[in-house]
């Protein structure tokens, strides 16, 4: 992994275009909040969405949809689920500890993410797929 250093600019579309593998994140760097967090981009094909859940107990997560369309469902420990329809340029702040899942409506979604390095929990509705993540 090569990290972008502070003060260095990068072109997100070029980084995504140069990624050899889909559904594998390319981490762009770290920044400190209450702890370490990852800044990166990921390309996720439609078939890798739906039924995959994650939760970040180490802090909030920020998602910026760069390309594609998806529905993100947030499931807080208290209160009702809430769905967010996202398209290019939409951003979503997911609070610490809130379970969330996405479903792509296009062949692929491309996302800029900022997420905690620690305290991450991932699972799938289908227990047979719980060893396959492909997410940060």
UniProtKB/TrEMBL annotation:
Q: Which residues form the Cupin type-2 domain?
A: 49-111
What spans are recorded as compositionally biased (Basic and acidic residues)? 78-87
For the region Disordered, what residue ranges are annotated?
75-94
- Family matches, as InterPro entries: Cupin_2, RmlC-like_jellyroll, RmlC_Cupin_sf
Against SUPFAM superfamilies, the record matches this protein to:
RmlC-like cupins
Which protein are we looking at? Cupin domain-containing protein
């Amino acid at each position: 992994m090569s990290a972008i250093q502070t003060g260095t600019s990068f072109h997100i579309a070029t980084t995504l275009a140069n990624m050899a593998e889909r559904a594998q994140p390319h981490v762009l760097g770290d920044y400190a909040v209450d702890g370490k967090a990852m800044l990166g981009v990921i390309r996720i094909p439609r078939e890798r969405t739906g039924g995959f859940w994650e939760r970040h107990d180490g802090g909030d997560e920020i998602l910026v949809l760069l390309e594609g369309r998806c529905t993100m469902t947030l499931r807080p420990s208290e209160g009702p689920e809430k769905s967010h329809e996202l398209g290019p340029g939409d951003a979503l702040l997911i609070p610490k500890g809130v379970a969330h899942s996405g479903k792509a409506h296009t062949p692929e979604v491309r996302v800029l993410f900022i997420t905690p390095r620690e305290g991450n929990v991932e699972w799938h509705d289908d227990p047979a797929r719980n060893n396959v993540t492909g997410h940060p």
